[in-house]
Amino acid sequence: MARIYTLVNQKGGVGKTTTAINLGAYLARLGQRVLIVDLDPQANATSCLGINKYEVKGGTYESLLGISPAAGHVLVNPKLGIALLPSSPSLAGAEVELVDQPGRESLLHKALEPITGRYDYILIDCPPSLSLLTINGLIAARDGVLIPVQCEYLALEGLSQLMQTLQRIRVSMFPNLKVRGVVMTMFDNRTHLSTDVVNEVRKYLPGQVFSAIVPRSIRLAEAPSYGVPIAAYSPNSSGAQAYEALARELLISDGVAVKEA
User: Fold this and answer.
1) Domain spanning 3-253 has what CATH number?
2) Domain limits, the chain
3) pLDDT, tens digit (0-9, with 9 covering 90-100), for 202-225
4) What is the CA radius of gyration of the chain?
5) Which pTM does this prediction carry?
6) Alpha helices, H only, the chain
């Protein structure tokens, strides 16, 4: 049965989609069967894997609304070893259409249930807001949430707000919701601020911050325009090394034997 992690942060531009794509790519390289679920109407994860979101015939929208099973919409990239349940702009309409659906908060969980046995890891990329889509992503996060946090000013304030939100969801809907780990992103080793932010987040959430830190990287920023993860675009770059280290760290802490890439 797959380990299901949801990537979430109410703040945009923190490297959430970048982490979903690149962590997934390295998990695949390390021998895992990986599915990325694009739950964002902006469909950035879909675009980052070289798929035109305007040409998507079916994906998370159809799966959520029960129009057709998720299994029929999964796209597989044999070269990258990643499977994707894509998004499209039509997903934006799901917010309104889901309101009157029974059990609307757990529709993604139900949609994914028939296919979880096909994968070792399922990574769900949420929109940068606390929407009904994000709540679906959190309810589906059977094994916890991964929180990318940018190494910049106000990061702790945003993280504190997110932790309060997660606590409200625990109390009202999903008591088993847990933080699997915080991923520090956009680290700039030329500034003291980045180091200070990492240290403060580690104090705030002791033992819950991954050791692997993702640096600011031009290569990471360029890779989406080529429709591939950093592992395929620039495998020797600092960003690639960071995401490989993160994948290995996650596997080891999950008790999974790590094979060489």
Assistant:
1) 3.40.50.300
2) 3-253
3) 999 999 999 999 999 999 999 999
4) 17
5) 0.96
6) 16-29, 44-48, 60-64, 94-98, 107-112, 132-139, 155-172, 192-204, 218-222, 230-233, 238-253
